[in-house]
Specification:
The protein is an alpha/beta fold. It has ten helices and nine strands.
């Protein structure tokens, strides 16, 4: 008899009963509350809320360079979790600036690369395509770069051991604590929005967010599900059905959310976004998120937006070729 270690899990996946998934026969308003409660539970948001502190900041520098103002500050998002943030503000004399949160994924030095600062020689050729914050500020936006747990300055190589990916230890540690890294990152984003109250020159109640790659594209999506102050979402290479994506092939550990596939698919979370604008960027030859899985997720997202009466609020933008971070292109998507 031929044995296969995947048979059991594949059988469970194929026969999964997602108890909180969208169905047309459900009352839409009641279901939206149901999916919100389920999302908050699997992301363990209550755990962070128990550990909440004031959103006070420590400013490390505030300077003008290259025609814009850059402020680096440290924010305590929950007790003993200190998150570096960079706020870039155009130096054009306006009274108030629209705010964009810019998140980039694993394969760079995160907030520094987004700001055009290459701290590692191997990233020099990556510039300027990854300078997401720079492209936003050129267009007149204030840009908030939030360091994500397990990446950049919040990456702890000395504690990684045999972890397969750079956020591996942080992911495993969170799980053992009954938490999930994806939820912690979304929490940090919403606390970073809280911190904008310290800067009256930027908006903090009508925020746009861009995220690229599975670590940041899904964080943008999840953060918008958590925080109603985020009105526009651009998720690049970040949205795919769990079944076709991370349940089918290995991805970075920060993508995995315990118990989620007993509850809902990624597309179901669109129920929390129907009053917002969602733009999904997908790559036809993405080696991490298969294009058919993105299309399957988008079909459900479109259906949910349509039932809500906001079918024009979501868009799928298809890019031929491999996944890549092209900051200029993503900002153009944001502005369309």
């Amino acid at each position: 008899m031929k044995v296969n270690p995947d048979f059991c899990h594949d059988f469970i996946i194929e026969n999964a009963n997602l108890k909180d998934t969208f169905k047309k026969e459900k009352d839409f308003t009641c279901w939206k509350q149901q999916i919100k409660n389920s999302f908050m539970e699997v992301m363990k948001i209550a755990d962070m809320n128990k550990n909440i502190v004031n959103s006070d900041i420590i400013v490390e520098y505030d300077k003008i360079e290259n025609g814009y103002r850059v402020i680096r500050y440290i924010l305590e998002t929950e007790k003993e979790n200190y998150v570096p943030c960079h706020l870039l503000i155009p130096n054009t004399g306006k009274d108030k600036y629209q705010t964009v949160i810019a998140l980039t994924g694993h394969d760079n030095d995160h907030i520094y690369n987004a700001n055009g600062i290459m701290k590692k020689p191997e990233l020099y050729e990556y510039s300027p395509y990854g300078e997401l914050a720079i492209e936003c500020v050129k267009k007149g936006y204030a840009v908030l770069c939030v360091e994500m747990r397990g990446m950049g300055e919040l990456h702890r190589p000395s504690r990684e051991g045999r972890a397969l990916v750079r956020c591996g230890f942080a992911s495993f540690q969170a799980m053992l604590l009954g938490r999930v890294l994806a939820g912690e990152r979304a929490w940090d984003v919403t606390r970073a929005i809280d911190s904008l109250k310290n800067f009256p020159i930027v908006e903090n109640d009508n925020v746009k967010i861009i995220g690229h790659s599975s670590g940041a594209g899904n964080t943008a999506y999840y953060s918008a599900c958590l925080d109603d102050r985020i009105k526009t979402i651009v998720s690049s290479s970040g949205i795919c059905t769990y079944k076709d994506g991370i349940l089918n092939s290995f991805e970075c550990l920060c993508n995995y959310i315990p118990d989620v596939y007993n509850r809902f698919e990624m597309g179901d979370l669109a129920g929390l976004l129907t009053e917002k604008t969602l733009k999904i960027v997908a790559y036809t030859n993405d080696d991490k998120l298969p294009f058919n899985g993105v299309k399957n997720a988008y079909e459900k997202i479109k259906e949910i937006f349509t039932v809500s009466g906001n079918e024009n609020n979501c868009t799928l933008i298809t890019v031929d070729g491999e996944r890549r971070l092209d900051a200029e292109f993503l900002v153009s998507v944001l502005e369309k």
